[in-house]
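User: Quick sanity check before I run a bigger batch. Here is a single chain. Can you write out its predicted 3D structure?
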Amino acid sequence: MKKSSVNGVEFNGKITIRMLCFLAAVMHFVFLLLFWRFKVMFLAYFNIGSVLFYITTGIIAGFEKAAHHFMTLVSLIFSEIVIHAVLCTIFLGVDVVFILYPICSLPVFVYYMFFYTKRSIFLRAIIIYIVSSILMLGMSVALAEINGGTISSSIAVLSRQEKTIFRVVNITFATIMLYGFTMMFYVEMSILMNKQRKLTEELKFTATHDALTGLTNRRSFWDYFENNETIRNNKHYSIAMGDLDNFKSINDTYGHGCGDLVLKSVAQIIINSTTSDEIVCRWGGEEMVIVFAGERSAGYNRLEGIRKQIEALCLTYEGLSVNVTMTFGFADCEEISRAISENELNDALDTSSVRVGIESLISMADKRLYVGKRSGKNKIVDK
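Assistant: Done. Predicted structure follows.
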């Protein structure tokens, strides 16, 4: 049975409906043996049909085409449950408690109808099931009681011990059914919650990261500065602005597929060279911004290591060797006062205006980057 998406939830019920059918077949086989043993032959013959019905339904539910007839399958199953309870109540009496099954099956019926029907059909189906069950069971109870416990003593006369056996069996089965359904519900809800959690995480990642490189985007970049403990506690950090050398030429010569490969490969090198406390952002096009935590010299040395790894990168695209280099501009947080004007400095020192200082520091790194571009590329400019 194919997955269905109903009421905003995706769900696959083929396994659970088959389990329900085969378990019901086992239960009715037990009833068959009891009815045969106690000479209630009409109900024994009825249960032969029930066993065959559930086995057949379980097999049919395994076929893909059964998904189009799921509503019919479920309706037939729960109709059989109600009819079986009504007949047993009429012929054996109320005190054998077969009326437990329609009551216990109601949450199961609601469960399946919720996942596999539209909201309007769902409500009608539940109302019909409840009303019909109450009417049929009420009439069967009344008829059985009027006739002294059973409709006809010639069809079924059970001793007190035999009725006790039926009560024990029915209470046991009803308890197992409720417990089993509860566990099934728990498992299915856990699966759905995990899927929902995973989807939420994927959507959050998509909203905060560049789809091609996996680097953070500008939105998450500014969130980093607003929420990062290093920035809030005025600890040392540095910023590098990098730009791939001759990237337009790579796209023109090898195609945009090669350009995408270069971007992803370089991004992976930078990601592997930074820690979870730091951030790498795709600033735009082939530009990337890196924030290093720690002293200036440490940040510069790590950036030089990244530059060398990119220079040594061996890429092959459609049998052709592609050379990649990257130029960086580097600025330290202590240079903010140099990066902005005197009037802007007072605003930048305000904790609500941290962004002013960061933007100015990025601007300084960007200017140094283009100094490096004009002076030979594949280098770091920090002054």
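Residues 160-208 form the longest helix (49 residues).

User: Great, the batch can go ahead then.
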